[in-house]
């Protein structure tokens, strides 16, 4: 039995004595073994609405369930595919596609939430593309609108960093990468506000998010972006607006409609993401 896995019943990331980067390194070694790709150059986490992108950005080299990789939890949500793919880009570089997201609201702690990002960094990826489905505060954003994340406000009261780890978050969502995307396709930009969830926000919370400078509300990306920055990666964040945030439109929110808006936009978003990856990787 390996030292980092003291018992079968304890999740390796739940052992406070274990450095989560050590598990990420183990995960990266398994990925290198399964894919035959020693180093990946860019990684993408595909949230609701972005799942089709993998097939349009390049040639599929390998695909396997994330649960076969150390530290990954079983997928909790329909619409989150739970697979990891390795794609060879037309440039010959390699992209790691993570279709398995652990959300903070699942209650397994932040280490598991950011394990995919740390694993991506351990595979060699220098750029982390984080995508999500989210609610929009701007009433002009119809469901299906992609928005570039310019900055975030983390309302989870949690951090993936442990101990006295002081990481600078200025330019967290890389201006350089946003400029590249804007040169390809002009998109609106916004500040992403991460709530814990899993309940959607109240209209009062959405109003507060707007007053403090937010434009987009969601439940995933801020914690991942912090971990990606700690790992030294350059970050691009993209939200698909799946619905007007609570109180922005008079109709109540409905998870099925959020998923449906994602599916309806999928082909368009896949084409957009393929163009972006071609340019930045
Ligand atoms: N709020 C939070 N998360 C979301 C939303 C929302 O309105 N839509 C999709 N994910």
UniProtKB/TrEMBL annotation:
<comment type="pathway">
    <text>Purine metabolism; purine nucleoside salvage.</text>
</comment>
<protein>
    <recommendedName>
        <fullName>Purine nucleoside phosphorylase</fullName>
        <ecNumber>2.4.2.1</ecNumber>
    </recommendedName>
</protein>
<dbReference type="GO" id="GO:0009116">
    <property type="term" value="P:nucleoside metabolic process"/>
</dbReference>
<feature type="binding site">
    <location>
        <begin position="101"/>
        <end position="103"/>
    </location>
    <ligand>
        <name>phosphate</name>
    </ligand>
</feature>
<dbReference type="InterPro" id="IPR035994">
    <property type="entry name" value="Nucleoside_phosphorylase_sf"/>
</dbReference>
<comment type="function">
    <text>The purine nucleoside phosphorylases catalyze the phosphorolytic breakdown of the N-glycosidic bond in the beta-(deoxy)ribonucleoside molecules, with the formation of the corresponding free purine bases and pentose-1-phosphate. Cleaves guanosine, inosine, 2'-deoxyguanosine and 2'-deoxyinosine.</text>
</comment>
<feature type="binding site">
    <location>
        <position position="133"/>
    </location>
    <ligand>
        <name>phosphate</name>
    </ligand>
</feature>
<feature type="binding site">
    <location>
        <position position="201"/>
    </location>
    <ligand>
        <name>a purine D-ribonucleoside</name>
    </ligand>
</feature>
<dbReference type="InterPro" id="IPR000845">
    <property type="entry name" value="Nucleoside_phosphorylase_d"/>
</dbReference>
<comment type="similarity">
    <text>Belongs to the PNP/MTAP phosphorylase family.</text>
</comment>
<dbReference type="GO" id="GO:0004731">
    <property type="term" value="F:purine-nucleoside phosphorylase activity"/>
</dbReference>
<feature type="binding site">
    <location>
        <position position="80"/>
    </location>
    <ligand>
        <name>phosphate</name>
    </ligand>
</feature>
<keyword id="KW-0328">Glycosyltransferase</keyword>
<feature type="binding site">
    <location>
        <position position="243"/>
    </location>
    <ligand>
        <name>a purine D-ribonucleoside</name>
    </ligand>
</feature>
<feature type="binding site">
    <location>
        <position position="220"/>
    </location>
    <ligand>
        <name>phosphate</name>
    </ligand>
</feature>
<dbReference type="GO" id="GO:0005737">
    <property type="term" value="C:cytoplasm"/>
</dbReference>
<keyword id="KW-0808">Transferase</keyword>
<dbReference type="InterPro" id="IPR011268">
    <property type="entry name" value="Purine_phosphorylase"/>
</dbReference>
<dbReference type="Pfam" id="PF01048">
    <property type="entry name" value="PNP_UDP_1"/>
</dbReference>
<feature type="binding site">
    <location>
        <position position="48"/>
    </location>
    <ligand>
        <name>phosphate</name>
    </ligand>
</feature>
<feature type="domain" description="Nucleoside phosphorylase">
    <location>
        <begin position="42"/>
        <end position="278"/>
    </location>
</feature>
